[in-house]
Protein backbone atom coordinates (compact mmCIF):
# COMPACT_ATOMS: atom_id res chain seq x y z
CA UNK A 1 0.00 0.00 0.00
CA UNK A 2 2.81 2.45 0.78
CA UNK A 3 4.29 2.09 -2.72
CA UNK A 4 0.88 2.61 -4.29
CA UNK A 5 0.27 5.65 -2.10
CA UNK A 6 3.62 7.03 -3.26
CA UNK A 7 2.58 6.59 -6.90
CA UNK A 8 4.89 3.64 -7.48
CA UNK A 9 4.36 0.46 -9.48
CA UNK A 10 5.01 -2.91 -7.85
CA UNK A 11 6.05 -6.05 -9.71
CA UNK A 12 5.62 -9.40 -7.95
CA UNK A 13 7.07 -12.70 -9.17
CA UNK A 14 5.89 -15.93 -7.54
CA UNK A 15 8.16 -18.97 -7.71
CA UNK A 16 7.29 -22.49 -6.62
CA UNK A 17 9.90 -25.23 -6.79
CA UNK A 18 8.33 -28.40 -8.18
CA UNK A 19 8.97 -31.64 -6.29
CA UNK A 20 11.15 -29.59 -3.96
CA UNK A 21 11.05 -31.95 -1.00
CA UNK A 22 11.88 -34.92 -3.26
CA UNK A 23 15.02 -33.36 -4.71
CA UNK A 24 17.02 -32.46 -1.61
CA UNK A 25 20.59 -33.66 -2.01
CA UNK A 26 21.27 -35.17 1.41
CA UNK A 27 25.10 -34.98 1.43
CA UNK A 28 24.88 -31.33 0.36
CA UNK A 29 22.28 -30.68 3.08
CA UNK A 30 24.53 -32.21 5.75
CA UNK A 31 27.52 -30.19 4.55
CA UNK A 32 25.39 -27.05 4.78
CA UNK A 33 24.56 -27.87 8.40
CA UNK A 34 28.30 -28.03 9.11
CA UNK A 35 28.78 -24.72 7.28
CA UNK A 36 25.99 -23.10 9.33
CA UNK A 37 27.77 -24.16 12.52
CA UNK A 38 25.54 -27.01 13.69
CA UNK A 39 27.28 -29.17 16.29
CA UNK A 40 28.43 -32.57 15.03
CA UNK A 41 25.84 -34.44 17.13
CA UNK A 42 23.03 -32.50 15.44
CA UNK A 43 24.48 -33.21 11.99
CA UNK A 44 24.78 -36.91 12.89
CA UNK A 45 21.18 -36.91 14.10
CA UNK A 46 19.95 -35.44 10.80
CA UNK A 47 22.10 -37.95 8.88
CA UNK A 48 20.59 -40.81 10.88
CA UNK A 49 17.08 -39.47 10.35
CA UNK A 50 17.58 -39.14 6.60
CA UNK A 51 19.29 -42.53 6.22
CA UNK A 52 16.43 -44.33 7.94
CA UNK A 53 13.81 -43.22 5.41
CA UNK A 54 12.22 -46.15 3.61
CA UNK A 55 9.47 -46.36 1.04
CA UNK A 56 6.91 -49.14 0.89
CA UNK A 57 5.65 -50.22 -2.52
CA UNK A 58 2.64 -52.52 -2.63
CA UNK A 59 1.13 -53.90 -5.85
CA UNK A 60 -2.47 -55.01 -6.11
CA UNK A 61 -4.06 -56.90 -8.97
CA UNK A 62 -7.82 -57.25 -8.77
CA UNK A 63 -7.71 -56.15 -5.13
CA UNK A 64 -5.32 -58.97 -4.15
CA UNK A 65 -1.86 -58.01 -2.91
CA UNK A 66 0.74 -59.33 -5.33
CA UNK A 67 3.98 -58.02 -3.87
CA UNK A 68 5.29 -55.76 -1.19
CA UNK A 69 8.73 -54.24 -1.36
CA UNK A 70 10.58 -51.85 0.92
CA UNK A 71 13.14 -49.58 -0.71
CA UNK A 72 15.63 -47.12 0.69
CA UNK A 73 15.19 -43.56 -0.51
CA UNK A 74 18.44 -41.69 -1.14
CA UNK A 75 17.13 -38.19 -1.99
CA UNK A 76 14.62 -35.81 -0.47
CA UNK A 77 12.52 -35.94 2.64
CA UNK A 78 9.13 -37.60 3.10
CA UNK A 79 6.09 -35.58 2.09
CA UNK A 80 4.17 -34.50 5.16
CA UNK A 81 7.09 -35.08 7.53
CA UNK A 82 7.17 -32.51 10.31
CA UNK A 83 10.84 -31.83 9.63
CA UNK A 84 10.33 -31.48 5.86
CA UNK A 85 9.78 -27.69 5.73
CA UNK A 86 12.58 -27.08 8.24
CA UNK A 87 15.04 -29.22 6.28
CA UNK A 88 14.05 -27.53 3.04
CA UNK A 89 14.38 -24.07 4.61
CA UNK A 90 17.90 -24.90 5.81
CA UNK A 91 18.77 -26.43 2.44
CA UNK A 92 17.64 -23.29 0.58
CA UNK A 93 18.65 -20.62 3.09
CA UNK A 94 21.40 -19.28 0.85
CA UNK A 95 18.98 -18.44 -1.97
CA UNK A 96 18.78 -14.96 -0.45
CA UNK A 97 22.42 -14.38 -1.44
CA UNK A 98 21.18 -14.33 -5.04
CA UNK A 99 18.55 -11.64 -4.51
CA UNK A 100 20.34 -8.31 -4.73
CA UNK A 101 17.72 -5.87 -5.98
CA UNK A 102 14.31 -7.14 -4.89
CA UNK A 103 12.58 -7.65 -1.59
CA UNK A 104 11.46 -11.20 -0.88
CA UNK A 105 9.36 -13.55 1.22
CA UNK A 106 10.14 -17.25 1.42
CA UNK A 107 8.17 -20.10 2.94
CA UNK A 108 9.18 -23.70 2.29
CA UNK A 109 9.24 -24.11 -1.51
CA UNK A 110 7.43 -20.85 -2.30
CA UNK A 111 9.42 -17.70 -3.06
CA UNK A 112 7.98 -14.23 -3.69
CA UNK A 113 10.25 -11.52 -5.03
CA UNK A 114 8.98 -8.03 -5.59
CA UNK A 115 10.05 -4.46 -6.14
CA UNK A 116 8.40 -1.07 -6.30
CA UNK A 117 9.53 1.76 -8.57
CA UNK A 118 8.40 4.93 -10.28
CA UNK A 119 7.17 4.70 -13.86
CA UNK A 120 10.25 6.61 -15.06
CA UNK A 121 12.49 3.91 -13.50
CA UNK A 122 10.71 0.96 -15.15
CA UNK A 123 13.51 0.01 -17.52
CA UNK A 124 16.20 -0.27 -14.85
CA UNK A 125 13.78 -1.93 -12.42
CA UNK A 126 12.97 -4.66 -14.95
CA UNK A 127 16.70 -5.17 -15.62
CA UNK A 128 17.31 -5.53 -11.88
CA UNK A 129 14.40 -7.95 -11.49
CA UNK A 130 15.69 -10.05 -14.39
CA UNK A 131 19.17 -10.00 -12.86
CA UNK A 132 17.79 -11.45 -9.61
CA UNK A 133 15.72 -14.03 -11.51
CA UNK A 134 18.77 -15.12 -13.52
CA UNK A 135 20.81 -15.55 -10.34
CA UNK A 136 17.98 -17.56 -8.76
CA UNK A 137 17.77 -19.74 -11.89
CA UNK A 138 21.53 -20.45 -11.75
CA UNK A 139 21.30 -21.22 -8.04
CA UNK A 140 18.29 -23.51 -8.67
CA UNK A 141 20.16 -25.41 -11.37
CA UNK A 142 23.10 -25.99 -9.05
CA UNK A 143 20.72 -27.53 -6.48
CA UNK A 144 18.73 -29.53 -9.07
CA UNK A 145 15.59 -27.54 -8.22
CA UNK A 146 13.15 -26.45 -10.90
Major sheet: order of its strands? Answer: 1-5-4
Task: Give the DSSP E fraction (strand runs of 2 or more residues).
Answer: 25-35%
What shape does the CA trace take? Answer: elongated
Largest sheet features: 3 strands, antiparallel
What is the count of helical runs?
A: 5
Helix percentage: 25-40%
Measured between the Cα atoms of the first and last residue, the distance is 31 Å
Mean pLDDT: 88
Strand tally: 5
| Quaternary organization | single chain
Overall structural class, as computed from helix and strand content, comes to alpha+beta
Order of helices and strands: HEHHEEHEEH
Instruction: Tell me the radius of gyration.
Output: 20 Å
Low-confidence stretches: none
Write a concise synopsis of the structure shown.
The protein has 146 residues and is an alpha+beta fold. Helix content is 38%, strand content 26%.
Can you characterise this structure?
With 146 residues, this protein is α+β, with helices and mostly antiparallel strands. The chain is elongated and about 65 Å long. The two termini are 31 Å apart. The mean pLDDT is 88. It is built from five helices and five strands; from the N terminus they run H-E-H-H-E-E-H-E-E-H. Helix content is 38%, strand content 26%. The chain has a three-stranded antiparallel sheet, covered by helices on one side. A two-stranded antiparallel ribbon has the order 2-3.
Amino acid sequence: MCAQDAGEITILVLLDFSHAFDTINRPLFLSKLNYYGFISDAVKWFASYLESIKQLVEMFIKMAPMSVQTCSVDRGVPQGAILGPIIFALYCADIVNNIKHCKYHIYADDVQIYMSFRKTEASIAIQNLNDDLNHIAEWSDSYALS
